[in-house]
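Notes from the 1:1 (GR / supervisor)

We went over the backlog. Supervisor wanted to see one worked example end to end before approving the batch request, so GR pasted a single chain during the call. The sequence is below; no edits were made to it. Supervisor asked that the structure be written out right there so they could see what the output format looks like.
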Amino acid sequence: MKKLIILLASGLIFGAGLSGFVLAGFNRTSLNQNNPAAVVGGIAPDFSLNALNGGVVRLSQFRGKSVLINFWASWCEPCKAEMPLIERYAEKHPDDLVVLGLDSEETPVIVQSFVASMGIKFTILLDQGGTVSDLYRVDGFPTSIFIDSNGRIQAEQIGSLSDESINRSLASVGVKP
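Structure output shown during the call:
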């Protein structure tokens, strides 16, 4: 009888923990799915993050300009492969396009080393808690979001950018390739 009670108690504890885990995951997912602003066609959710080179950058400060937000991490091989392409487009469109690279949850030392090794000059932001990645429902790296001058998300690229995909997405936000 004592073994049965212990077994039942263990099962209840495990079941309660499992249901809490499932509910926590469900709530986070449902909140993201109910956020219409984080989808193509919606207004881009505003955020503030620390910049790698100092200061705080707020997305809304770029209203009136087209913005490319690239979510990446230094350990991501496709991210490394597309960085020169993004840098090239940032240099090609300095007056038409704001490029923000959001590193997700890495230390500033790691990010600085990566940025230096890649020769990146566009603005790098530190999403150390992953809150902006969550806000934009980023599930994998790289992910790029293209926002028009009115603050609307016009395109999303999950996976590596190519010349073709970046040109198409830039055209959707009013930047001539």
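Supervisor's comment: The first helix runs from residue 2 to 33.
Batch request approved.
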